[in-house]
Amino acid sequence: MAGMKRFGMGVGLMLMAALLFFAMAYPSVLIRYRLTLEVEQNGQLRTGSGVIQVIYRKNIQILGASAQILMEARGDAISVDLGPGDTLFALLTKGRHPRSAPEDLLPVLFGVTEVGFGPEVFGRIGALEGEREVPLDLLPLMVRLPNTNDPKSAALFMPPGGQPPNQDLILRRAVIDIVSSGVWPLSLMGITGSPVTRGIHKKLPWLEGFKGYSGGQLHPIWSQPEKNLTGIDFSQ
Asked: Where are the domains of the chain?
């Protein structure tokens, strides 16, 4: 029995050593933030928020890989309930700005960089704190589903709104605040820190196993981004 305990402790120590070596050779940074949307609908204020996690990793550059880093977002699209079966979403994909996707947004919004970056800024990203109001052109793609049971009902929402078919909606404010990312390496397993927001599949029952595009077509319609939505735009 004592031998088995020593063996288990040895394996555990080797795994920890391997994990530490990998973390030093290929550094990463994990950060979580809450995006809050404040929308006015026919004079009534409605809000919605959610926590998104982003991991930036130094890329293992083998077999011709050229990217310095890999970026991975986790979470659900931020939703604002507008009424029975009617919801506004800030999706997990870029909007008008080329760096408005959830994994690109923070370094630009908090002034770390406005262009591409590498592992040299991981320390600055990990030290981010506080909150910032998000400029309208830096928001991710937004759509309204007036019928959450039907992805084909998706209509593009162009902030600040007020134009058909969203003439009843005005986006008053969007705010990002940095929340607790937990303690590494437990945060990688979602054990510590502010939990990443989940539950969108209850709001969108068709999302489970969804394949193809929201418009039902076989190929993208580039002039109508609301028709090109896929499952990963809503949940990752």
From this structure: 27-233
Lowest mean pLDDT among 85-94, 106-115, 180-189, 211-220: 180-189
How far apart CA 88 and CA 140 sit, in angstroms, is 12
Sign of CA dihedral 227, 230, 233, 234: positive
CA 161 to CA 159: how far, in whole Å? 5
Q: What percent of the chain has pLDDT over 70?
A: 86
* Residues 51 and 30 sit within 8 Å (Cβ to Cβ): no
pLDDT on residue 59: 86
* Residue 113 to residues 56, 79, 97, 132, 141, Cα–Cα distance (Å): 14, 28, 14, 15, 21
The CA distance from 34 to 181, in Å, is 11
pLDDT bucket at 183, cuts 50 / 70 / 90: confident
Residues with Cβ within 8 Å of 88's Cβ and at least 6 positions away in sequence, in order, are 37, 39, 48, 79, 80, 82, 142, 143, 144, 157, 169
* C-alpha distances out from residue 126 to 18, 27, 55, 102, Å: 23, 12, 10, 16
pLDDT of residue 63: 62
pTM of the model: 0.85
Distance between CA atoms of 14 and 8, rounded to whole angstroms? 10
